[in-house]
Automatic annotation (TrEMBL):
GO terms for molecular function: hydrolase activity. Belongs to the glycosyl hydrolase 38 family. Gene3D superfamilies: 2.60.40.2220, Glycoside hydrolase 38, N terminal domain (3.20.110.10), Glycoside hydrolase family 38, central domain (1.20.1270.50), Golgi alpha-mannosidase II, domain 4 (2.70.98.30). Pfam families: Alpha-mann_mid, Ams1-like_1st, Glyco_hydro38C2, Glyco_hydro_38C, Glyco_hydro_38N. Keywords: Glycosidase, Hydrolase, Metal-binding. This is Glycoside hydrolase family 38 C-terminal domain-containing protein. It comes from the Bacteria. It comes from Microlunatus spumicola. CDD domains: GH38N_AMII_ER_cytosolic. Residues 524-602 form the Glycoside hydrolase family 38 central domain.
Amino acid sequence: MPDLTDPVEERLARFRAERLLPALYRERVPLDVTAWEVPGEPVPFAEAVDADFTPFEVGSAYGPPWATTWFRATGTVPEGWDDVEGTAVEVVVDLGFSDTEPGFQAEGLVWTAGGRILKAVEPMNQAVPLDTSSPARSGAAVDVLVEAASNPHVLEHMTFVPTHLGSRATAGKDPLYRLRRLELGLRDVAVWELDRDLFTLAGLLLELPPETQRRAEVREALDRVVDVVDPQDVSGTAQAGRDLLRRVLDKPANASAHQLYAVGHAHIDSAWLWPVRETVRKVARTFANVCDLIEREEQFVFAASSAQQYAWLQEFYPDLFERVRGHVRAGRFVPVGGMWVESDTNLPGGEALARQFVLGKGFFSSELGVDTQEVWLPDSFGYSGALPQIMAAAGAKWFLTQKISWNDSNVMPHSTFRWEGIDGTQVFTHFPPVDTYNSELSAEELARAERNFTEKAVANRSLVPFGHGDGGGGPTREMVAAARRTASLEGSPSVRLASPVEFFTDAQAELPDAPVWSGELYLEFHRGTYTSQARTKRGNRRSEHLLREAELWAATATVRTGAAYPYAALQAAWRTVCLQQFHDILPGTSISWVYADAEAGYARVAESTGRIIDEALRALLGSGTSTASANAGPYAVDGVPALAVTPEPSPFGPVEAQPDGDGFVLENDLVRVRVDARGLIVSILDLVAARELVPEGRAAGLLQLHRDVPNRWDAWDIDRTYQRTTTDLVDAVSLTAVEGGALRVERRFGDSSLVQTIALAPDAARIDLGFTVDWHERQKLLKLAFPLDVHADAAASEIQFGHLNRPTHANTSWDSARFETVAHRWVHVGEAGYGVAVSNDSTYGHDITRASAGVRGSTTAGATTTVRLSLLRAPLFPDPDADQGEHVLNVSVAVGAGIPEAVAEGYRRNLPLRVVDGVGAEPVEPLVAVDHPAIVVEAVKLAEDGSGDVVVRLYEAYGSRARGRLTVGFDVTDVVETDLLERTVDPAALRAVEGPVAELELRPFQIATLRLSR
């Protein structure tokens, strides 16, 4: 095959490699280098600077995985350097970088000997200018320290194989890197500028249509510049080359050219292929780069999300934080997003998503004086249909993401649109058509943005986030140079350095009647994130409900007894939970180190909230000899009213299992359950409706094992091909009736075993299943199937503050792509007037279809709806030991249930009664009570401002309009409606207040926050 590369392209590539790049520095001089390897975890500068540094030779190896090595470089600026016009003095550092992605390998933070941070060095950003921050005059002393992090490249060459690098304990001790360069360089600015001219024009050449005048003139200019620049005198002739290219660079863009708003950006994953402790340093490195760039480049604006990352900077790098604060005041460093972290939005509960904004916007307001207007989630794995209302209730007007472009089946039809949530709230939304949040502002990317923009007929603006991301690093001076050259360039979209607010303001004015997309933004990819790392998901679910209990009982104790409200402890717990909802932690897609930290974090939350709950309840109940039951849920449970405490025990005893042939039967007044000798539920008879729910020949509560080998992103993906290999776990080692009425089933399979319990509630049409699984499979998926004789066209799945209806069929490609979906505490399937709810205490992944599933042989698949829960996975990358070990899961099936029963079951399953011994016998009345079951009290707490006011968050849970009364159980002086940040707003749900009673009217799924002054 002949090489069809354009000769000019080939000539330019050689010209750049052999002439320009070697001439970027007119002179280089070595620095004297010493080093100190930190014996353990990273240490602050103040400790490092006084360490015992020893001589180190450039070219030597250093840095085992996850270690930190401090280099100190000293020397003198050579005589005459400051007299050379058109040059700049820089420290040049190569820590042993490869030419793969920045942010995934060695990185360094450079300090002066006096403790001032200069900037970071990374693979694509190796220079540290000295002109504005350190003396750069001839004869001046140079003394800098480089904190080098030898982070392993876990994802090198995009390979997804099991790795030992995910934990410091297993990563080994051999050095990963060699220090290649630590020297002073005299940069030739004209050569550098010519290189930037070529970057822009050579890229443009590839995007211009063939056989056009513009392409011909650009090609000719690029060809001729190679002749103009003398290889024997690149420095002396570089400007001549620039002058030659000026005539093609100066031709302005067409009036109809697409307008790109270039926003400096660095998507920094708060943990992923590195632990949280390394993210703290990545933030410092990136923000230092940005500060340096802001101080050198006019008009450059940088946007960064995640209040947690600013809080880390404030705690660990206070001087750098003050620099950032100054640039924030000047409008050059722009906090965006308003959330504590760039959270996953599928898995966190409603109140937790609300607290993302309470914490995030609260920090931005109090520490930086900023009220962010946009929500910024470029990389989360799909977006809940509840999010528009939550965003709006937090005071946000705009939303940005680009992740939906990763869809594996369907292309989103809009770039700019209004996204409508489950309650009808609409938020102006933009998907940057550049299709990356790590743009370099190359001609290829700019052309792609223009080509992909879908609203061309009515609009002409899009946003392009530019800067090295994921592992951080941020924008570079080379990217800013590209933006300046394409501000108005014929054949290219026009690029404008801008802030997100500028873009959204202009885009919304240009497209006031944007098209509407209704419902969730389901990512047709990364479906395994609903299930991977089950312990972390259980920790999240449990922590959310523990925090509900802690706030409720602490607020009740403060109001009733005057006990101190534990503001600091509660905020610390919420910060931990919200951090761990980051979109690579909670979804289960990080290295093992991250999950060791996460489990420790949840243990701290459990300890602190447990202490708060116990102290509050004992303050309320006093000492005594009684046992009390505390119900933190919004519905009465076993005779205990909602949000109250009562000493009366449950009057119901357990349902005892009775032998039935070679199996057992469980029966109460409402339902009869038959379990065969295999421990499978072969019959669920609704005695009230006289209706059998398990189709003939099928079994409910059936565990199914699938091969689970995704094509690429192991922990992230469940590919549809898993459905082709199914093993029904029908064999039981034992089936016995145990004390307390339950059946105990023991199973073994592969290298794993489990114990399952089956019990029937004494007073309800509900079957409770418990699972203790000792899981040692690899690349397997464990599902729990309930084939039900119910013909459901759609399934209702609980999401934040409501539920979502999804088709159970696959009529369209959009329906077919949703073969794995997310639900929170319950799902519901039903026909008109009859249904079944399946609730859980820690599971999120589901598939609900009318296709056959279960014991084979059914002839009524069309009338059967099968609900399946994804219990466990076993991916190998990035954590080869993901989910290995013991897991405890609980599932319940409510027979003859509608949406009201499903909602109540979800709360009951996740908020069991809390038993307190050794207390007084007097009941504790609730602080608030609601008389309409569809109006759910989601949170009761004290106000964030420390005023002592009580804040109550409610929502409509059934999907219908609801009118009800909130009765306050303490002296109240005023009741007002607020947003999530507890700022008074015009009433949307509050209709009237008379004494302790507030009249409410909520539309379907509406959230309402009330502030009760006392």
